[in-house]
Amino acid sequence: MQITNIEFALGNKTETIQDLGKHNPDWIIDKLKDKIGIESRPVIDNNENEKTLVLDACNKLFHNTDKNNVDGIIHVSQSAFSRLPTSACIIQDEIGLPKNLMAFDLIQGCSGFVYGLSAATAMMQQNALKKVLIVCADTYSKYIPLNDRTNRPIFADGAAAAIVENTGEGSIGPFSFFTDGSGGDLLTLQEKNGGEKLFMDGKQVLKFSVREVPKVFDNLLSKAHLEKRDIDLFVFHQASAVILRQLKNKLNIPDEKWFQNIKNIGNTVSATIPIAIKQAIDGGLYKKNMNIMLMGFGVGLSVAGCILKS
Length: 310
Description:
By secondary structure, the chain is of the alpha/beta class.
């Protein structure tokens, strides 16, 4: 059981920290850049939305992957292009996938790809599915005005499409989860002027991540009967530089085993981990016979971890 192919698509418009500085002359750009570690981010243009990103990522994927034997679609998003019917059903039709398949949406954000892997592998273990398409996509920029100093410099728009197959010598799992819904209002959508605006209490989300991720980290290693030294690559949700830096230091993860791509991509929410995996593969960091830890954390508030054997 393994991820056999993966592709991604990003918003066509590049928005830099300098662009935001021009809109907000009172911002201290150098200080902000050092804190978040992001210099530019892709965001959707006027003619784009979550659906266009999803279809772009899927079309890239199926340019090199057989679509005829896909028997499951899991679409993961908190900014889905369709809620009724589910986006997964529309993806089946638009991409031209077989009709004898299962298709559903997962409403998840930062932990979403790990949730998707958990659902897909569980159904494979039940012999219900053999080849599943997991699509993670979010377009948070539509919820964030240009003068929002907390959120606008961080969040980006992107989609990733991955194929998971019940084949090969690799493995997916075990998994470890943590949920604290009492902190749901720390990262949420709020109604404003007839629309929706993203709100995040950055300090509290940081405290949650630094406090709870290490607990899930230890629990996951225990479930897998592994030591930290046994993990060859750590691919964490690309939240912001300050969170990643604190987690890396607290967990004492060596530089050569740590993947970080946030500088010119930003935080694409549910798509950050699969995008990172694709870049790690292309960069030669993700190889055969490796133990890889995935860790998603954030909105929910939630944490979800998984061990992959490549």
